[in-house]
Amino acid sequence: MSRYAHAPDHPGAGGGSPRTPGALVVPPGTTEHVPLPHGGGFDLLVDATATGGALGANRLTLGEGADGAGPHHHARSTELFHVLDGTVDFFLDGELVTVGRGGLVVVAPGTPHAFGAAAGDTADLLVVLAPGVDRFDYFRTLGRVQHGLEPFDSLLPQQDRYDVHFLDGADWRAARAAASGGVQRAKARRAP
């Protein structure tokens, strides 16, 4: 593993003290926040440059029932999701799996996946990609796309750069709709 001799001086990349060789500290309040329109957002914790390519990490909060990412895969990296709070629907190689607070999901390179807050719930996730890819600009672009300031197609030429390879989302949308319908039916049965 590479030694983290020093961290770059920009928010979210481990800036701040202490700077100890072999360690990287990201002090509270030093990360960049990219807001999303559903009330959530990305907190950009550390990019690959700051870790010698070992990993990249962000914290993602999702509003009630909000999508986190549509179907995609990573060709080179493994992605780890730790559900810090709430409930998340993961679409893993065509199967919908719901994971609650404290759960962990690890997605191997090449595995199609998508995720979002479960219907009727919010979510808070720690997301780690290893080996890391410099993706802070990707998350900034996603924020602009979500706010309607930039078209999604602007990301298509960048798939190799960010190791995010987009896939058709029809099955994901159908699975989410079916899961959401089940939640609505369950709520209706509980209503007085």
TrEMBL record:
Annotated Cupin type-2 domain residues: 60-128
Pfam family, one: Cupin_2
Region of interest: Disordered: 1-32
Protein name: Cupin type-2 domain-containing protein
